[in-house]
Amino acid sequence: MAQINIDITIVGEYSTYEGLVSETEKLPKTQRQQYMKALETVKKEIQNEKIFFLSTGAFSGTTFGYLFVTDTKVVLAEVKPFGKVKAHVLKYADYKEIDHDLAQALGMKATIIELKKPGLFGSKKDRITHIPQQDFDNIYKFIKMHIQ
After folding, report:
1. Which residue, of 33, 51, 115, 126, has the greatest Cβ tally within 10 A?
2. 3-state secondary structure the chain
């Protein structure tokens, strides 16, 4: 599994795609290449958005990536083995409920944001997991404000 570290933080109210790209020189070469690949993968989704949070997280629970939280959606640039990057998009307008949890197993804690969308045969749940604890509360409150 690729290790995901973020040395770029959003200072102020929000950042833009161009602002995040301009900060890449602060990263070491290997991290910079991985981060730039992730940015290129999600460019179409976040280019014209205000980005309020940049963190790490997972949607599938096993593959981690860069988590971009905008005012209309959450975008995860999932970093797969061998350097492949896949984008996942969760638009707030698709969801009607939000909940959160802190799971603990084998001495490890995992933060979970659960988004529920109505369906014909019950609700469908999507999860964002493994957000660092220091970012979790702010990201959860931000998403909750946009869903309810």
Report:
1. 115
2. CCCCCCCCCCCCCCECHHHHHHCHHHCCHHHHHHHHHHHHHHHHHHCCCCEEEEEEEECCCCCEEEEEEECCEEEEEEECHHHCEEEEEEEHHHCCEEEEEEEEECCEEEEEEEEEEEECCEEEEEEEECCCHHHHHHHHHHHHHHHC
